[in-house]
Amino acid sequence: CSVLRARVEPVPGALGRVCAVASASSSSSSASGGSKAPNTSLFVPLTVKPQGPSADGDVGAELTRPLDKNEVKKILDKFYKRKEIQKLGADYGLDARLFHQAFISFRNYIMQSHSLDVDIHIILNDICFSAAHVDDLFPFFLRHAKQIFPVLDCKDDLRKISDLRIPPNWYPEARAIQRKIIFHSGPTNSGKTYHAIQKYLSAKSGVYCGPLKLLAHEIFEKSNAAGVPCDLVTGEERVAIEPDGKQAAHVACTVEMCSVTTPYDVAVIDEIQMIRDPGRGWAWTRALLGLCAEEIHLCGESAAIDLVTELMYTTGEEVEVRNYERLTPISVLDHALESLDNLRPGDCIVCFSKNDIYSVSRQIEIRGLESAVIYGSLPPGTKLAQAKKFNDPDDPCKILVATDAIGMGLNLSIRRIIFYSLIKPTINEKGEREIEPITTSQALQIAGRAGRFSSKYKEGEVTTMNREDLSLLKEILNRPVDPIKAAGLHPTAEQIEMFAYHLPDTTLSNLIDIFVDFSQVDGQYFVCNMDDFKFSAELIQHIPLSLRVRYVFCTAPINKKQPFVCSSLLQFARQYSRNEPLTFSWLRRYIKWPLLPPKNIKDLMDLEAVHDVLDLYLWLSYRFIDMFPDASLIRDLQKELDGIIQDGVHNITKLIKISEAQKLLNLESLSAENQSRLSGTVKGQARRMRGAKTLGNKAAETPSPSVGEKSLASRLVQQGLLTADMLKQLEKEWLTQQTEHGKDKTEHGTHSKGARRKKKEPDS
């Protein structure tokens, strides 16, 4: 006992030594960069189980005596309340929240363990006999705190790993050459991309990096049509143009898929202003800093010039700016459309929600006009088919109803852009949903689709659907575009693996949170929003996968608003973890192939979700070839599904009509029930009120519709003047008003009746 007890110094010395260590630790950390304090709410405590009976027995009890648990509890409570201990804990990174959680865990561990380690048993025994001070528990408490919060033990290492400053240094191959940067700046339809592509086609080797699969496909086809062999690389597709599969000198790819190690003569990065995108901006930053090309041609808005110049200054590369003017004039009209009766051939109505698209398409069809429909979740093949239909001069379809998906990637022959609304839901850098007017950049991008140089309309026009929106549109378009101030960054798989090495028991979602919190960036950069990644990480957290495989599954692009797509990611991960290949026959059974043509809008949306699931399979097939072996068969299946969806979109107004009729039937049956219920309530009230006879006479005078006659609601919906949602809202308001009106009359009748009774009664 005396030997073990000799390890513990007297109280002042022990506390003084610990304080000195804490002081040295804090001074060294401040000297290492003065980093911001971490957000400790992200530290999720691990569970440390109490010790069970030891095979060697309770050695501490044999050396001293068994501990009195009541005495120990008093000692622990005293330890917790000491201000000096709380301050000492703060020096080691334990703020009030972490200190409390660590103490609760520490107390439970001591109180519930059958036998404790010898050293802590002896210290507790000595404190009970006043042979040691309660402060001597701190080293054992700190050891336990680091067990449940392992991040406390490796904060400096984590800061080094998550240091995202000086990103140009991540690309040594690019830094080894002196690149020429040419910025083609101009509005939509100014020819900036055309000039950059001409350089690309005339070079011995080149890479095109675009924001969309459609754009990559377009350059792939143009390049091969011009006699320049070109491969295609997107997340879901690889096409080698050479018969032997050899890599061509030119490649068209989506920006996320570009290689930063392959040397090229010319690289084209399209829509460079998307470097500020909260979710995808990192891909443009990576391409700009990392592409190994002698010449890099950037195409985009002038708002990105200053930022690109600053970033290239850090790499020692100069930026040459070439400015372009719009090739065809465009004007903002002085009058709004106001009514769909005023539509003309070549008009495009831009909506920012699917519901608006369905409603507008239906109303156009009621007026005897045909319309094409394009929105973001449609497959690329369907978008191209709808664009071809709208562009075809021999096709009766002369009106286009679309979302802002037309802003890039499609060549459309539009004369006039009509904004159905100027309000668009967006996701900010923090992942929060915002509903605000569209930005100047977005308005210019969409408006610029009117009167394109290659279309039959040589002048473009822009207006709004509603008169009150027109002044706001003019104000938005006249504002200067805000300069882009920062470029996006994203942690790599290697960085996350290094994080996981230090925090092996932490979930991937929590690792990402801690990484982002610990990360340090230069003023020209920001860390991209990773909510989609974390959503997938939490979705598959319970499935046993290696960290690298889990990371790949979480980077798979999915629409988290589609339940079937999310459940498919989960199912794919589960199959992978069982080492069961996802074959063509298995996937056919899973999606219940063959699929029937859509009968209503819900069926169409379900088919779009299935198409997304096939996209997910193809995306994973290029990362895990052995486990997703049937990519070519799935691609053929997807083309067949694309045809089914195309037919559905071609008949979209019929699907909308059927869906509205189904809604209306449900609403009318509900309305009938509510009216009968309300009628019973009103009759019950009428019996208690005087003057019910007059009310009954008025009601009797109201003619009721005959059995064969359509209700007014049905006729209004059929004429496109009323939607099922509007009908539902009107019904709710009417029921509320009738109920309140009935209550008022009841109260008024009771009051009058009471007054009359008072007059008849003698004074008391």
Automatic annotation (TrEMBL):
The lineage of its organism: Eukaryota, Metazoa, Chordata, Craniata, Vertebrata. InterPro entries: DEXQc_SUV3, Helicase_C-like, P-loop_NTPase, RNA-DNA_Helicase, SUV3_C, Suv3_C_1, Suv3_DEXQc, Suv3_N. This is ATP-dependent RNA helicase SUPV3L1, mitochondrial. One of its GO terms (cellular component) is mitochondrial degradosome. Keywords: ATP-binding, Helicase, Hydrolase, Mitochondrion, Mitochondrion nucleoid, Nucleotide-binding, Transit peptide. Residues 332-497 form the Helicase C-terminal domain. PROSITE patterns: HELICASE_CTER. Belongs to the helicase family. PANTHER family: ATP-DEPENDENT RNA AND DNA HELICASE (PTHR12131), ATP-DEPENDENT RNA HELICASE SUPV3L1, MITOCHONDRIAL-RELATED (PTHR12131:SF1). Its cofactor is Mg(2+); Mn(2+). Major helicase player in mitochondrial RNA metabolism. Component of the mitochondrial degradosome (mtEXO) complex, that degrades 3' overhang double-stranded RNA with a 3'-to-5' directionality in an ATP-dependent manner. Involved in the degradation of non-coding mitochondrial transcripts (MT-ncRNA) and tRNA-like molecules. ATPase and ATP-dependent multisubstrate helicase, able to unwind double-stranded (ds) DNA and RNA, and RNA/DNA heteroduplexes in the 5'-to-3' direction. Residues 751-764 have a biased composition (Basic residues). The keyword Hydrolase applies. It is an enzyme of class 3 (hydrolase).
